[in-house]
Design a protein that fits this description.
The complex is a heterodimer of chains A (about 140) and B (about 140).
Chain A (H helix, E strand, L loop, with lengths): L1 H19 L4 H8 L8 H19 L21 H17 L3 H6 L6 H27 L4
Chain B lengths: L6 H24 L5 H9 L7 H18 L14 H18 L3 H10 L3 H24 L4
């Protein structure tokens, strides 16, 4: 069942990214570009996604996952240096190309070569991240 | 009034609900957080080897459903940049950044904000600010994108 749930979840995620227009880089950049012809779509996608997810979190109370085990415990509410530095780097790349990891995967079948170039570069970045994080910790120890 | 509302909004809302429902299935079914960068990143750096098949099954769904819907959907372009330097730089930044921050739009954004996680909200504020500054800088000032 674990794999069935994973496939259904991935399918819904991919279908949602597709129909919402979030694999269209101009819609993402259009939302970020407050000085241009502002496109509000992303806010609707975010709002639409947060609603069922909030209900799901409420349903986790007093239960356990259908496949057994336990639900992920909330992380320590610590705002570390890595959270901020990483998010700023991610945001810069997101703005530059108009793609984030989910849409980058969902669009592989129809986005053409630019999406593959972005995807491969993203994988390289992900592979390099653990080393870079170590270097960051060494150079500027987290408080 | 309704004829002035572009259907893009409605598709955005429908797509958002589908995305959130996917996250709900992954959480309630498997007890996992649907974060795209975490699911892919764990495969790339080996930290998610124990759950590799589950991750790959999820990703297969993400890729397959658009292939199935595409023929019956209105045609559209993704308007992606054709500038190699832009694509490679952006990909590297997204890959490194999401793994250092331990999450992206789906993990910190959708899954984090919906559980009122402070980390999720702070990450979201920072990547949106950085994204906004980048678009304004590279579009309106430098004219690269």
């Amino acid at each position: 069942m674990r794999f069935l749930y994973a496939f259904i979840a991935g399918g819904l995620f991919g279908a949602g990214l597709f129909v919402s227009g979030m694999t269209d880089t101009s819609k993402v950049q259009g939302w970020l570009d407050v000085f241009g012809d502002w496109d509000p779509t992303l806010a609707f996608v975010m709002g639409g996604a947060i609603l069922p997810m909030a209900i799901a979190w409420l349903l986790t109370k007093g239960r356990q996952p259908l496949v057994g085990g336990s639900f992920p415990t909330p992380p320590e509410p610590k705002i570390g240096r890595n959270l901020v530095v990483g998010s700023v780097l991610f945001g810069a790349g997101w703005g530059l190309a108009g793609l984030c990891p989910g849409p980058a995967i969902a669009s592989l079948s129809y986005g053409g070569w630019p999406h593959w170039v972005f995807f491969v570069a993203m994988l390289v970045g992900m592979a390099a991240a653990p080393k870079l994080r170590q270097q960051l910790d060494k150079a500027v120890p987290a408080a | 009034m309704f004829d002035t509302i572009p259907t893009d909004w409605i598709w955005g809302l429908i797509g958002g609900l589908l995305i959130g429902t996917g996250g709900a299935v992954y959480l309630l079914g498997n007890g996992r957080i649907m974060g795209a960068s975490g699911i892919i990143g764990g495969l790339v750096d080996g930290s998610g080897r124990a759950s590799a098949l589950e991750r790959l099954t999820f990703l297969a769904g993400v890729i397959l459903l658009p292939i199935l819907i595409n023929p019956i959907y209105r045609p559209f372009s993704t308007h992606a940049s054709q500038n190699l330097a832009v694509l490679i730089t952006a990909g590297l930044l997204v890959g490194v950044g999401t793994r250092i921050a331990n999450g992206c739009t789906s993990g910190h954004g959708v899954c984090g904000i919906s559980r009122l996680s402070l980390r999720g909200m702070v990450a979201t504020v920072f990547y949106i600010l950085a994204g906004g500054v980048t678009v304004v800088l590279f579009r309106h000032i430098l004219g690269v994108i």
